[in-house]
UniProtKB/TrEMBL annotation:
Keywords: Transcription, Transcription regulation, Transcription termination, Transit peptide
InterPro entries the record matches: MTERF (IPR003690), MTERF_sf (IPR038538)
Gene3D superfamilies, per the entry: Transcription termination factor 3, mitochondrial
UniProt name for this protein: Uncharacterized protein
GO molecular function, one term: nucleic acid binding
Chain residue ranges for the region called Disordered: 1-30
GO biological process annotation, one example: DNA-templated transcription termination
SMART domains the UniProt entry points to: Mterf
UniProt key word Transit peptide: yes
Protein family according to the UniProt entry: Belongs to the mTERF family.
Source organism, top-level taxon: Eukaryota
Length: 372
């Protein structure tokens, strides 16, 4: 199987994300009878409620909060945001940042990232108060993802996104994607689905692109994007294991590659799901292994929610010698629910009185039994 799949393991976020700091020194403060000066500073200058001001001024917290407040002030965050702002940090430093459990800050409609946007993007961590290039990074990523909403979702999926080096990782990876996907729209769609990949090691990104090419899919083709997603999601071991599974059902190496080139997404299904669907298609529907290899989309449908209920209808129609019972299985399962009901169920309820009731019951059982 090594001839089929070359390369290393599936891509991981890669690289270590540097903990963000506010550029403030940490010094323990002995208990004082009078309010700590930080308490007064935060209450009078920043508008913090007293309880939160007391929390941040305790032992182990920053003696000088001006650095963090200065950073926030650069982006218009001069006022305390009530429930929307929390106090978070790690064992070595604490920063004023957006509480990761809050999502109620509204994104402004104007162009360019606002302070609240930036705070959300960093998911509770801030870069160094003196670090430059924060806004350019957000602007670059905002243009890459196409909207603030997509960028915010991507930053939640990949915590390395906003902390990764844009020149050493993000831009080179994006450049590689543009070369093989050939369309800014495809790149935007891909990074929105797999934001972790653009923070991976550049060599790993290059390797996974080469693996897709080695499997017979050309750069720039419409299928390259799907193949890139599929290959990057699984390890070589998993890939080989799924090949051996399909081989046990009668697929040849050529048929496995054919199926992959037609619909790489079937590799995203678990082995349990693939096995169950193949057994159903071969034993219950009567499909040949080569038929499934030529139509791998069948392996991506829900067994309980679509394949079994529609086969139930076709079987009843065939038993009652009604037109439609012998129709191609792929065509029937590819239809929308409305189209399938109108063509195969509703029009035949008089001939087969239990058809609609049985179909609905089968679908209901499928929803309750679905475990994939």
């Amino acid at each position: 199987m090594s001839s089929l799949y070359r390369g290393t393991e599936a891509l991981s976020p890669g690289g270590s994300s540097r903990d963000a700091h506010c550029g403030m020194s940490v010094a323990a403060s002995p208990p004082q009878q009078q309010p700590h000066f930080v308490v007064n500073y935060l209450m009078k200058s920043c508008g913090f409620p007293q309880n939160d001001a007391v929390r941040v001024s305790g032992p182990g917290y920053h003696e000088n909060p001006a650095g963090g407040v200065c950073f926030l002030g650069q982006y218009g965050l001069k006022d305390y945001h009530g429930r929307h702002v929390g106090l978070v940090g790690d064992s070595s430093a604490h920063c004023v940042a957006l509480d990761s459990s809050e999502t109620m800050i509204k994104v402004p409609k104007e162009e360019g990232p606002s302070g609240s946007d930036i705070m959300q993007l960093f998911s509770g961590k801030l870069p160094d108060a003196h670090e430059s290039g924060v806004r350019p990074k957000v602007e670059f990523l905002g243009a890459l993802f196409g909207s603030k909403d997509r960028l915010l979702k991507a930053s939640h999926k990949n915590r390395h996104l906003m902390m990764s080096n844009i020149d050493e990782k993000i831009k080179p990876n994006v450049s590689l994607l543009r070369e093989c996907l050939t369309s800014d729209h495809r790149v935007m769609r891909f990074v929105s689905r797999r934001p972790r990949l653009i923070t991976s090691n550049v060599n790993k990104m290059r390797e996974v692109i080469q693996r897709v090419e080695s499997l017979g899919i050309s750069k720039g083709s419409g299928m390259f994007e799907k193949a890139l997603c599929a290959v990057s999601d699984i390890s070589r071991t998993t890939f080989d294991s799924k090949f051996m599974l399909m081989k046990s059902f009668g697929w040849s190496e050529a048929e496995f590659l054919l199926a992959f080139r037609k619909n790489p997404t079937f590799l995203g299904s678990s082995e349990m799901k693939i096995r169950s669907i193949m057994e159903f298609l071969l034993k219950e529907v009567g499909c040949m292994p080569s038929y499934v290899a030529s139509h791998p989309i069948l392996l991506t449908y829900s067994l309980e929610g679509r394949l079994k209920p529609r086969q139930y209808v076709l079987r009843l129609l065939k038993l009652n010698d009604i037109i439609g019972g012998k129709d191609d299985f792929l065509n029937t399962v590819s239809m929308t629910e409305k189209a399938f009901l109108n063509r195969y169920v509703i029009r035949n309820t008089e001939k087969v009185p239990d058809l609609l009731e049985g179909y609905v019951a089968t679908c209901a059982r499928g929803k309750s039994n679905s475990g994939y």
